[in-house]
C-alpha cells in the first residue's frame, strides 16, 4: 500500500505529469490502438488520465451521484463513438485548453510544459489525424517514423521537467476567451483542410501550407481592422460597445440620465425619474432606495436581489432572474453613473443654497455698512447742532438740515429697497458738481480739508456709492486721528476727464499684512481699517468704480476711488 501511495505522489499528484501521461496514452492510442482490446484499454487509460488532469474539478472534490453518472456515461460512449472525426475534435479541445493557458498571464517557467504539450497536440493533429480524414497517408510516409518515435519526446520532456517539482496538483485557471478562440481557429484549420483536400485533390503538404497561410492572412487582416488608424476606430469600438450594452444600449442610458439631470431642478426629482427609468427595464422587477431621510420603492420584490451603494445613495435592485457576473458588472456601472449624477445634483443644490446664503450675508453686510454711514452723517448734524451758540449759527444749521435731511431720507429709502430686493442693485445718477457741493456741506464740521479743480468732470456719478465709500474712508481717517495726534485729512477731486477722488491722511502707514488683504477679505483692525473697506470695494466694483490704496507710507496714506471706463 505504501508503494502505491509513493507512486501516486510521484506520478499522479502533479498537474504537468498528469498532462504528460495523458498525451503519452493518447499517442499510444493513435499509433498502436488498431487492435480492439488494446484500443479499449488505451482509450480508457487516456480517459482516466484526462479526468485526473481536467481543469474543471479538483482531485480532492467529492463526486456526487450526478457527476459519477456523467463520468461513467462518458467512459461508455468513448468505447463506441471512436472515429477520426471525433478524435480530431477531441484533440482540438485539448489543444485549446492547453493553448489558452499559454496565452494567459502565468509565470514564464510554468508556460514551458504547456508550450511543449500544445506543440505535440498540434503536430499530431495536423500530421497524423487530419491526413487520416483525407486518406492522405501516403503523402506523409517519410515523416511517419518521425511522428511515431520522435514526437513522444515532447511529453517525456514534460515528465523530466516536472520530476523535481513536488507541488501537489492544482486546478489551473481557464481563460474562456482564449480557449474558445483557439478552439474555433483549430476547427477552422481542420474543416478548411478537409474541404480544400476534397475539392482540389492536391498534395497534403501543399494543402496544409495553403490552409495555414490563409488563416494567418485572415488573422492579420482582422488584427488590422481591430484598430486600423486614428480616423477609424475599427472593430475594437464595436466590440466594446457590444460588451457595454448587455441588455441595454449604454449610450441611450447615458443620454436619458443626462437629460433628467438637465431638466430636473432638484436632486430628488432627478432620482425619481431615474428610478422609474431603471424599473422600466425588462430584466428589472422592482427598485427600492434610500438617501438621507428618504426611502421609497417602485415595482415588485423578487428573490434575486442586488444591492449597490454610491455616496449617500443606497440602492436595492430586484431582478427577474439571477445576474451573471458580466451582467452584474454592467448593472453596477449603470447604477454607479446614476449615483454620480445624483451626487452632482445634491452638490449643485448645496452650492446654490450656499450662494443664496452668501448673497443674503453680503447684502446684510452692505446694508449695515450703509446704515452706519447714515448714522455717521446724522452724528455730524448732531455735532453741528451742539456747537451752535449764536442765532447766525442756528440759521446756518437750519439751512444745512433742510438740505441734508432729504438726502439722508433718500439714502435711507435706498437702503430699505435693498433690504426688500437683495438681489437688485438700483443705480442713481447725478452730476459731480451737485454731489460735491452737498457732500462738503454735510462734512463741514469735520476736521477735513476739501479740494477740487476749477472745472469739475462732466461725467455722471452714482451719489449713493460715493457717499457710502467716501464716508467710510473719511470715518477711518477720523478714527486714526483720535488715536494719533497732528493728523490732517484731505479729500480732493483730481483734475482728469473721468471722475477720480482721493482721501489722504498724514498718519501712520497701514501694516503690510493688512494692506495685502484690505479689499479682498475682512480684516479686523483697532484703527478701523479693513472691516468696512472690503464691502466698500465690492460696492464700488459693482457700480463701475475702482477703490485702491495708491500710497502707503508714514505721513502719506492715500486711497483713490475712480470710475472705470
TrEMBL record:
Residues 366-565 form the Histidine kinase domain. GO terms for molecular function: ATP binding; protein histidine kinase activity. Keywords: ATP-binding, Kinase, Membrane, Nucleotide-binding, Transferase, Transmembrane, Transmembrane helix. SUPFAM superfamilies: ATPase domain of HSP90 chaperone/DNA topoisomerase II/histidine kinase. The chain crosses the membrane at residues 38-56, 68-95, 115-134, 146-164, 176-200, 207-226. InterPro entries: 2C_sensor_his_kinase (IPR050980), HATPase_C_sf (IPR036890), HATPase_dom (IPR003594), His_kinase_dom (IPR005467). It is an enzyme of class 2 (transferase). Signal peptide: none annotated. It catalyses: ATP + protein L-histidine = ADP + protein N-phospho-L-histidine. Gene3D superfamilies: Histidine kinase-like ATPase, C-terminal domain (3.30.565.10). Its EC number is 2.7.13.3. The keyword Iron does not apply. This is histidine kinase. It comes from Methylotenera oryzisoli.
